[in-house]
Structures are given as structure tokens and as C-alpha cells.
Amino acid sequence: MEEILKLRNNLNKIFAIHYSCASFDENINPHIFSIAIRNIGSGEELDFCVQTYADKSKLNITEKYDELEKELLKDFLLFMKKHNASTFIHWNMRNSKFGFQAIFERLKILQNSHIEIPEFNKIDLAKTLIETYGDLRIPHGKKGRLFELATLNNITTRDFLEGVEEAEAIKCQNYAKARNSTLRKTTCIADIFAKTIHRELEIKKESWVFQKIKKYFPLAILISIATLLDKILNILNKIYSFIKEFF
């Protein structure tokens, strides 16, 4: 968390980033559809999207996807080289299936280009928040932690789709839906980051069980016992709510 708080003094060099792609089930290296980048300091947003390039060139996306994706990645590469000293705030973009590595793999395939971003220039906001507050206080929910945390902090989630929904929208040629979702997620990441560095982020409150145990037990015992009891309490609350509907 200290690493994030230090960034408050130079927000114009901080960017939130997210992207959408085709289905993982149908592709080893799925096509990139849209990459959205938002400057934390200025609020300026950039959108590298296949749909935009298709509109400009009057090309059919289905027929010319590789060509359009190549142009998208070319411009993205130029942007990354220009901002190689900047820090990029992302949400779980940390492996070869979904992340910077996956994007760069598409660069290799389509352009035979290569770029590396040092680890210290990338911050996984999701991972940082879980390490700071704990898994239970950053709820996952049906639509994932990003959606739940945005909702908890009154950040609009209009147009927000799950990853599989974005892939389905791309497959069904509902390109605007996939694009708008990518832009929305990037804005959510930027807003959550801003609330974090200003110490305004709302997270799930500890249950009374967790609070009582924390008061009387050492930290090592607290982590194992309180976590278990907190989960049990949540289950009991759900059972009670279910039974209550019938009485």
C-alpha cells in the first residue's frame, strides 16, 4: 500500500489500464478487441479499439480483424514507448492468459514487435487491496471484485460486463457493448485508485465476530479463527434470509 500512496505526488504519470479480448475457450492467443487507458491526473482517456479503426478505414471487422488489430497494437506500442517511465494501474492483468504478457504475445504474432514493461511500472490494484485489507473485506460477488468494490463506493457501473460477456458481445458483433464495458472498467479502476490514495475507499466492514476475536486473541490465532467464523456467520445469515422468505 505504501507503494501506491507514494504515487500521489505525480498523478499525471499514472495511468489506469484495462482491455477486452475474444474468448479464451476458442483461442490460445485471443484477439485483442479494445485497450482503454485513463490518465489519473488529467482524466484524459484513450481508446485503442478495433471498432474505431474499422470505422476510420471503412473495413469490415469480421473480414479484416487481423489487419485492424495490427493497427490497434501498433498505436498502443507507440503509446507505451512514449510513456515508458509511467506507472500503469491494472486489475489482475498479471499472467499469460490475461494481462500485459497476453497483449505483447499478440504484438509478436501480428507485428513481430517486442516490448517489456518493468514490474515496478505495473501495479495490480486488486492484489494490493487484498494484501492490505484481506480477502473477506474485498468481496468477490457474482460479477467479481471490481464490480462489487465500485458498487460499494457508489462508482457507476453502467455498461459493465463480465469478461465472458464481453467475449460473447465481440463474437455476436455487439462491438459497442464490449467497447463501453472496457471503458467503464478502466474508469472504475481509476476511481478506486483515487479513493485509495486519498484514504476514502469504502471496504466491507468486519463482522462483530471478527472484531471481538481481534480484541482478545493474538494476530496468528485471529487470522485462522476469525476468518473461519466470519465465513460461518455469512453462511448462517444467508440461511436465515432464505428461511425468512417462507415464514
Write a compact overview of the structure shown.
With 247 residues, this protein is α/β, with parallel strands linked by helices.
Tally of domains:
2
Q: Superfamily at the CATH H level of the largest domain?
A: Ribonuclease H-like superfamily/Ribonuclease H
Order of strands side by side in the largest beta sheet? 3-2-1-4-5
Total strand count, please? 5
Largest sheet: 5 strands, mixed
GO molecular function: nucleic acid binding
InterPro entries: RNaseH_sf
What does this structure look like?
This protein has 247 residues and is of the alpha/beta class. The chain folds into two domains: 2-197, 2-Layer Sandwich (Nucleotidyltransferase, domain 5), CATH 3.30.420.10; 208-244. It has helices spanning 2-5, 50-57, 65-82, 100-111, 125-133, 145-152, 163-171, 175-197, 208-216, 219-244; strands at 14-21, 32-39, 45-49, 87-90, 122-124. Strands 3-2-1-4-5 form a five-stranded mixed beta sheet, sandwiched between helices. β2 and β3 (45-49) form a beta hairpin. α2 crosses α3 (65-82) and α7 packs antiparallel against α8. It is globular and about 65 Å long. The mean pLDDT is 87. GO terms for molecular function: nucleic acid binding.
